[in-house]
Amino acid sequence: RAMVGFTRLDAVGELTDPDLNIQIDPAPISRQPPAWVPASEVRGEGVFFQFNEARIMDWLARSAVKEHGDAFWDAHKKWRGARFIEPPERGFPGMRYVLLHTFVHALMRQLALECGYAAASIRERLYARTPELAGGPMAGLLIYTSAPDSEGTLGGLVSLGEPETLERHIGQALEAAHLCAGDPLCAEHPPSRTGRTLHAAACHACLFAPETSCERGNKYLDRSVLVPTVEREDLAFFL
């Protein structure tokens, strides 16, 4: 893991994603261009999940999901437009990504309770790609941790990934997603009206993760695409 610069307000995943085309100059780590950068060897562990592609396509074909996707797309354009990122319609990850991203956040919060790692040390990596794109389709996610010493290999995540325990944790994560301490305001939150936010039913009380954990800066999240909420029941992937 190497350090090449510093940024504020923008997630690292957005800066390294060529599809987003965000023109941001990170603050340099030295006054003069360095001939070397500080780096460390890290060790870690993780659990990989792959969604059933047929189930994903059936869910995406629902009229309610398509309508909700249009709302997210409008929010995406407003968010980019408010930051003068051209073209505003480029780089929308789609509802496939919203589903996977929301699921991984819900599960990370649940696993952090028992895996032995702090929530800020658990990270996500999403693999979401539609069938028409090169290398697609993809519908997978990786929950992992890494540290420069043996602390990253405690075995907590791997042990929770065993079939006899993983099913219980997924069930508890989905059960917790039904309600939020911020409901009904959280559940009623639209993707965006002003371009200030880029999430729907999500907040610090239910889905948000530490900035070191999320590759999208807590954007493209919505509890209602996972399970029924007090506001909507027609978007849930898990019924």
How is this structure best described in words?
The chain is α+β, with helices and mostly antiparallel strands. The protein has one domain. 31% of the residues lie in helices and 11% in strands. It is built from 7 helices and 3 strands, in the order αβαααββααα. The protein has a 3-stranded antiparallel beta sheet, with helices on one face. A hairpin with an 8-residue loop joins strand 2 (122-129) and strand 3 (138-147). Helix 4 (95-111) crosses helix 6. The relative contact order is 0.18.
Listing every helix as H and every strand as E from the N terminus to the C terminus, the arrangement reads: HEHHHEEHHH
What is the domain tally? 1
What fraction of the residues are assigned to beta strands by DSSP?
A: 5-15%
Structural class: alpha+beta
Overall mean pLDDT score? 86
Number of helices: 7
Helix content: 25-40%
> Residue ranges: pLDDT <50 for 5 or more in a row?
18-22
Strand order of the largest sheet: 1-3-2
Largest sheet, if any? 3 strands, antiparallel
Radius of gyration: 18 Å
Beta-strand segment tally: 3
Distance between the first and last residues' Cα: 40 Å
Mass-distribution shape: globular
Features:
3-stranded antiparallel beta sheet; 239 residues; 11% strand; alpha+beta
